[in-house]
What we know:
The structure is a homohexamer of 296-residue chains. In chain A, helix 2 (41-55) packs antiparallel against helix 3, helix 2 (41-55) packs across helix 8 (177-189) and helix 7 (155-171) packs antiparallel against helix 8 (177-189). Chain A has eight helices and 14 strands. With 296 residues, chain A is an alpha/beta fold.
Amino acid sequence: MPYTDDSINHILQRTVDELSDTQRMAGLFHQHHDGDPLPSIPVLQEIIGLCRAVLLPGYYGQDRVNSATVHFHIGVEVERLFTLLTTQIEAGLCFGSDGADGATEQPCRHKAAELAAQLIAKLPEVRGTLATDVEAAYLGDPAAQNYGEVISCYPAIKALTCFRVAHELYQLDVPLIPRILTELAHSETGIDIHPGAQIGSHFTIDHGTGVVIGATCIIGHHVKLYQGVTLGAKSFPLDENGNPIKNIPRHPLLGDHVIVYSNATILGRVSIGSGAVIGANVWLTHDVEPGTVVQR
Amino acid sequence: MPYTDDSINHILQRTVDELSDTQRMAGLFHQHHDGDPLPSIPVLQEIIGLCRAVLLPGYYGQDRVNSATVHFHIGVEVERLFTLLTTQIEAGLCFGSDGADGATEQPCRHKAAELAAQLIAKLPEVRGTLATDVEAAYLGDPAAQNYGEVISCYPAIKALTCFRVAHELYQLDVPLIPRILTELAHSETGIDIHPGAQIGSHFTIDHGTGVVIGATCIIGHHVKLYQGVTLGAKSFPLDENGNPIKNIPRHPLLGDHVIVYSNATILGRVSIGSGAVIGANVWLTHDVEPGTVVQR
Amino acid sequence: MPYTDDSINHILQRTVDELSDTQRMAGLFHQHHDGDPLPSIPVLQEIIGLCRAVLLPGYYGQDRVNSATVHFHIGVEVERLFTLLTTQIEAGLCFGSDGADGATEQPCRHKAAELAAQLIAKLPEVRGTLATDVEAAYLGDPAAQNYGEVISCYPAIKALTCFRVAHELYQLDVPLIPRILTELAHSETGIDIHPGAQIGSHFTIDHGTGVVIGATCIIGHHVKLYQGVTLGAKSFPLDENGNPIKNIPRHPLLGDHVIVYSNATILGRVSIGSGAVIGANVWLTHDVEPGTVVQR
Amino acid sequence: MPYTDDSINHILQRTVDELSDTQRMAGLFHQHHDGDPLPSIPVLQEIIGLCRAVLLPGYYGQDRVNSATVHFHIGVEVERLFTLLTTQIEAGLCFGSDGADGATEQPCRHKAAELAAQLIAKLPEVRGTLATDVEAAYLGDPAAQNYGEVISCYPAIKALTCFRVAHELYQLDVPLIPRILTELAHSETGIDIHPGAQIGSHFTIDHGTGVVIGATCIIGHHVKLYQGVTLGAKSFPLDENGNPIKNIPRHPLLGDHVIVYSNATILGRVSIGSGAVIGANVWLTHDVEPGTVVQR
Amino acid sequence: MPYTDDSINHILQRTVDELSDTQRMAGLFHQHHDGDPLPSIPVLQEIIGLCRAVLLPGYYGQDRVNSATVHFHIGVEVERLFTLLTTQIEAGLCFGSDGADGATEQPCRHKAAELAAQLIAKLPEVRGTLATDVEAAYLGDPAAQNYGEVISCYPAIKALTCFRVAHELYQLDVPLIPRILTELAHSETGIDIHPGAQIGSHFTIDHGTGVVIGATCIIGHHVKLYQGVTLGAKSFPLDENGNPIKNIPRHPLLGDHVIVYSNATILGRVSIGSGAVIGANVWLTHDVEPGTVVQR
Amino acid sequence: MPYTDDSINHILQRTVDELSDTQRMAGLFHQHHDGDPLPSIPVLQEIIGLCRAVLLPGYYGQDRVNSATVHFHIGVEVERLFTLLTTQIEAGLCFGSDGADGATEQPCRHKAAELAAQLIAKLPEVRGTLATDVEAAYLGDPAAQNYGEVISCYPAIKALTCFRVAHELYQLDVPLIPRILTELAHSETGIDIHPGAQIGSHFTIDHGTGVVIGATCIIGHHVKLYQGVTLGAKSFPLDENGNPIKNIPRHPLLGDHVIVYSNATILGRVSIGSGAVIGANVWLTHDVEPGTVVQR
């Protein structure tokens, strides 16, 4: 029996009613209070763009910039970054408190502004670290022609500009926002670094698609990863209800000057000693002595 | 000999003529009839956004929403979803029929509207299933702070909102559109699920980059995959012309409560019994008994 | 002690000063000369869209097109492509010369226009090769319904439209731009092909996420790769300063009709003979005879 | 008593209910049938832009154009003009029939396409007439430097490109759309020409703000108006219900080579003979012999 | 002597310094406090669009709407209108207090929300009055084909939707915003109505360009104006400093059923009695008895 | 006989051919040379916005600004203004030379940059004059609440920001661009001031719709105009070919402290002495002694 226009309209209306039944939405419905800012993907993407423009002037951002005008540009960008970050951090404070665990946190525009200013105060240090990452990527890739190519193209630099900013927000206990930022980089580059990870200077990742770095990883200086490397958890203890216990150290520790080749998988709270080399496709769940080469 | 402006103009014109020679375009040229709607990536992205806004109100969509106004928002979104889906399904009916096999199908706005309404009527059920996926992701990840974080950030939820809608369209025999939808999710998340796959409730994927789930997979309830897992075909029979025979079951069957760790590869029409655990980087082309743990 | 508005303003201003100190920016600051065009991601994305519209008329591009009007559309698109390419190539000539190695190259609008015209003159040939890639993707995937689906959805076709154009620019010694183009495709598809690679006709990649093809690879005709395959470098000689020597052949050679299954890793300047089949998850650093099947 | 959040929400909801009461909307509510196109201001503005680009190539439109490529540009623009005009004419056929007089007209995509093609077939003639308008504006203004300035800047040319196209649509009995087009030009230029007016060649208007030309005006060749001139109706006969009778000739007739200076007002079905000059601020409700000068 | 790049840069930098000298900016610089909303032209244009969509459903707004869905659309539009109005009223409260008179007013989000809700509560009444304006325009113009044309095209309706909303805000003592709203309508239509004017039902303006209605006008029911009519002030008393005294009644009073023809000028606190007719181009600075016809 | 699809296509193609015949385009076709910048309405609108933001910081522009950051904002805005102005002045130099008079002028990016810098160097003086205009508008209107309202809303200020900048460009002999700028203000406000007019300080226009100020007007200080005032040419001498002779003084001279009320028309090279008052609707073609009041 063919559908009539009336029967189609009836279907649509009935479905709207079913979908609007808030009793049946469980945790899938987020109510907003008037005036609460919303976490906003386009705003967070603008924040990423502003961080890149401020940290790497002339490479990112839409404007020409030279040594006579760089001060003006950074001044305007930092002001806008402060404004946008404040709304998004406030949104995270409101939004993050909503959900399965019923926690509530007093949203607070002033607290959000404080946190935004604290993040911005960290940016010179973040730039210092990123400079070491750029150097590492340039020196580590025979195909790299110059710093400009590395900064403009390399997924590792895109992922690390996001991660290093998100990590500072994570350190400041800003909820939700750091995670959205690293997921945006994950979507852009295929590199998934949890904002809680601790990563030293001169860090680089070649190609990068499929790399996973877990929340409790601690990584030294001068470390290099290739595409497809997982630094993950092996298993995790459950509480009395059978749910995973949160916040337990469960990801690898990597020393300085470690190299992990493509598609290697390192699972659990294991230590990879400084100077160790882990071969491609290796599957590893135990400690490795400094300087060791582990091959498949 | 340097190029002159005239020689450049001559090159451009000659190339335009060569590129416009329809005799030499083979299957690479798609002619449109006047008035036919076109499959449109921006429209399909808006459709994905509307589905997410309707299924997960307050988490996706640009508007504030609360229990007093959720009915209005869903009403407007469902109406727009119906309008856009109708044009895209019609485009799929027109467009899908064009190509190497020469099949033709009568395009039909009314049929497209019927199919759009049937899809929409499935959305309450889709939301019910997605709720179980969100629960599974939350419970399965010690790093997840609350439902809000899971719904806002996790690639698995982004991929599954697309897949579960695309799968309903696939079940309705809508051509082309389901595949474009899952490819948009693939591009966004690195998770490639064919819309033909059948996937039970409480399904989750951790990190997700590089996951491939083939067209004829059948997956039970409470299954969890990690990044880089392939559920693929081993080989496929060829017809008398040496071309692959279409639509033959050729991908794995997974029971309930199966876990597959990162970068494992399961190929062919094999059965992985309920409760089985497949370790990271395992390569598997044979059946696995229920409850078995397969390690490298 | 809570932050006051004044102390926040003080923090912001001090940070702006620190971030604007050009003495401390090292290689992270790119100065622009007035009038120099800037490499622009949105413009390069439009260039990719124009190439796809010109090469695959009716499948890409926003306009309806039929045999009566295809000449007009291609004429307008080629003219715009020429204009945009000229600015971006000029930007590459300016920009690529800036960086760690201190090289300088005379920017030149006329040279950029010449190179843009030379690229455009190659497009008919590029279309011919892409037609073989489409055919290979269609014949190689039992799930493909018709050419339309392959051209509209398959990541391999998206990656190869970018790569084959970027490779022509690379052959013309255009700096930077080819690399940005292939990184845009990498971000969109998870397939990372260096523009320097040489790839024959009838090439296809299934699913594709995580594929890496290095700068000095040479790949024959009728080759098929699956997701997660790496064709990489094993190690590379260092110069007297411990830096990698640029431009040394260091990636695999693949003959005709080679198949490499998912997540296989082939490293170094090894030869994979025609007709060889490399199994999933294989790790390979030596030559393979023609016709050999290598399994894990 | 201060408002609470609850009382505000209560006000909003009650107002939504009142405003949604379709019984009380009288003629102020326009219902749409599914699939009917809507008259769209942005689309009509694009139509105006396309007409200007096609009629005055190189002056309007966003693209560079030269004699080698003008054919391509006009081909693409005419195709898009045809597509957009068809939807808007169809919308006019649907929409115009709705309202106080209860008339209904069968909407018809094919009829709309016919009318769009008929309009397009008139464009070469419209261009011929516009060329005389440009000449008249250039010759009549000592401040005009060249044709380029007249075509790019003069409000008269903007208003006449709209009017001359809208008049052709009016002649084809397209409802609503011609009127919206001339109102868009009215908003842009302050020149209000009813699409029903008949206007000869070499017509120009200096400055133009406040000019009104009524629906039944008939204007000869080589006529020039200044700002603030009204060619209006004096009064109009009422029918038995006291409503104005539609479509009665009620606006002035102007011969050839007439000049009307600023803010003059000519009302009613009067004849202004060829070569007459009407002075600034004159108020005129009677016939004027050819060659007469009427001063205040 | 030709300019060098250096001399140009020097000029630019010196000018920036001069322009940034806040000591010399007098009243031309508006400082913002962090977090204060800004009056925003794009937001106010969206507010106008929302008011039109809510008041005249199906004629304005981008969405299809029918009797089954009008409730949803108005619900969503009213919610968004409330949100946007609240920010703009708050901006008006902050912004309006800044300037030459040094007044300060406590900005207050809650007060802004109250005022926004009060404005919204007036909208049903505003719609009732607009319905009489539409009727008056339709009946008064022989060229009008139906209500749809009047509502979609007539500048009077565009100006009156803005004015009637702005007048309600003015009555609520909202600073600045009502004036910006009527200036947006002035720019769009050439009709300049001060939001303080009091205007009865069944009001219409034909063509409208150049109409000016002053802040203290009081206009009865069934009044009709033509283009170029000024209802202005003749002169105004000065205070001891020679500045005009604010808020003194100084514009005309018009009774019911008054008609004022094009370009007539009525100045000062004069009374135009009910039923009076003022001819085109008349200049009038004295009272007119009811029923009188005043001609030039 | 109904149209078929084929006959419609035939009509479209024939019309494209007719419209593309460059032989028949006369002066209506503007050919572009590759690489020439185009005058661009959107860019010129951005230029107007930048001038307003720089001249009236905090009132125009999208950004918050305060005394700590105003230097950054103006620095960035001046840099962008310089870049955009350079392209548009260059476009004017190319474009203005094309047309009826056959003149050619060597386009020159460097000359354009010089002229742009010279314009920018004038901006502090322009701001000084605008400050007197704002003061005049505020003091002259009893309805004005404060400077903020005047600067944000008054059409006179919008028109004068454009005019005063365009006049400086006109003084620098930049072709075409000054005229497009004042026409943009004409369209926005209904106030048409030729960029060649010379206007003193403390100038204001009330309401403004329909005001026309001709190219050779010279206006003193403290002058006030009302809506609809024309300062025009009476007639102009013709050359031997019957064409108007360009650049002859032909518009009124107004002394200081002159007031001209609404819709008054002053034509020809007449002198209106300081302190004169011209009444509404007056029509005037002779000199007026200082201090005289001219009434109708």
